[in-house]
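From the pipeline queue, job 12 of 40. The input is one protein chain; the requested action is below.

Action: predict structure.
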Amino acid sequence: MVKHSRLPAEERRQSILLAAVPLFAEFGFKGTTTRMIAASAHVSEALLYKHFPSKDAIYSELQELCCADKKEVSEKVKALEPSTSTLIYLIYYLISTIFQGDRGEDETGFQHRDLQRLMANSFLEDGVFATVFLDHNIAVWEPILMRSIEAAIASGDMIEDWLHPSARWWLGHHLAVACGLLNLPAETVIPYSFPIEDLLNHAVRFALRGMGLTDKAIATHYNPGVLALFKQNLHRQSSQ
C-alpha cells in the first residue's frame, strides 16, 4: 500500500502534476500510466483519481501549467515598440529560451529539458500538447514580430525579397528547436569544431542574416551582453 502524507488538496494536485512531468517527458502520453504517476507522486491510484478523473485530465492540466508563467512575458512583449532593435531582441530571446531555457526550473517547477522532451514526444504522437503550447507561447508574438519586420524593411535594415514575412521569424524558431533537440542529451551528438557555448550566438546571427537583416543593422543592434540582460529583465519583471 502506498503511504502518503496529508496535504491540502491544491498542494496534492500540484505534487501529482509535477510528478507526472518527467514521466510524460520520458515515455510520452501513451507510454505513461496512472499507476506510474501515482507511484512517482507517492500516492495511491485511488487518491490520484480523487484529484484527476483520468490521465487525459492530468495531461491537459500540464498544458495549462506549462503556459502559466509565460503569459506575463507575452504581455510585456506585445507592448514593445516595433523596430529593428525590438526584432533582434525578440529573436535572441526566442532562440536562447527555446535552445537553452533558463538553466534549471521555471516558476512552475518544470525542468527545461523535461519541457523539451514533452514537446518532442508530442511531435511524435498527436501533436496536441505542442499545438497548445505554441499557440499560447509563440504564436501570440506574431503581431509584434510582423510589425517589427515591417519597420526594419521600411528603415532599410532588412532586405525585402520573396521570403514571406511570417517565415522570416518562424524559421528562426525552428532553428532554435533543432538546436535544442540536437543538444538535449547530456553529451552533445554533434562534434562541433568550436566551443558549445558559442552555438547560441552563431544560431542567432545565422537566423538574423537569414531573415534578411543587413550587416549594418546586425552590427548596430546585436550585442549579446545587452540582449542577455534584456532577457533577464523581462523574466524579472514578469515575476514581480
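Job complete. The chain has two domains: 9-67, 69-238.
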